Amino acid sequence: xxxxxxxxxxxxxxxLGSFNPAIxxxxxxFRQGLFRQSxxxxxxxxxxxxxxxxxxxxxxxxxxxxxxxxxxxxxSANGAPLRDLVVGTFFILEHVPVNALGINFQMHFxxxxxxxxxxxxxxxxxxxxxxxxxxxxxxxxxxxxxxxxDHVANAMFxxxxxxxxxxxxxxxxxxxxHYPGGKTDSPAELMGILSERWEEAQIYAPxxxxxxxxxxxxxE
Length: 220
Known about the structure:
The chain has helices at residues 26-31, 37-42, 80-92, 114-124, 128-131, 187-217; strands spanning 8-17, 44-49, 52-56, 60-64, 68-73, 98-110, 143-148, 156-163, 170-180. It is an alpha+beta fold.
């Protein structure tokens, strides 16, 4: 099967728990040895208030609310520093309650033609039943598939497919590996999963997406 390369790709790590957004400032990451001084000084701060922190560096976006910590790589950036930042952060903040981890990958693919673009939606969400009652040409806006993961108890895997808003005649995929926290809400167990799973997750997500694209575009 031909390996399709996305036009745009990215990754994100999301934690659910109980956070103090105001501490997550570029200067704090520098003092902890997680940012270079130049990186901290060049960071673009959007907002830092008690209920929300949002800033950007050259390679990532960080958004923290009292219930959610999200570190997002910028398009096509190397994902390894993202993992290292999150693991390093919660090694230091070892007593912060964290009760769920999400490992996410985003990919935008060009289909090359309107025919192939429509074919993806028609294969994933057949329109025969809809054409009998809806006017015009019904189209798929979003589809999410969920399954379990075997390597960690109660872990889930989601795949979302939508028309791309960034690539002409493109399709957007987002994969999500969801891991619930342990009984104590200590971040240590989830950081262990993130460290161990990150490399394999980066391989598995494109493999899933390429399988779906290959199946959807195969000649019938």
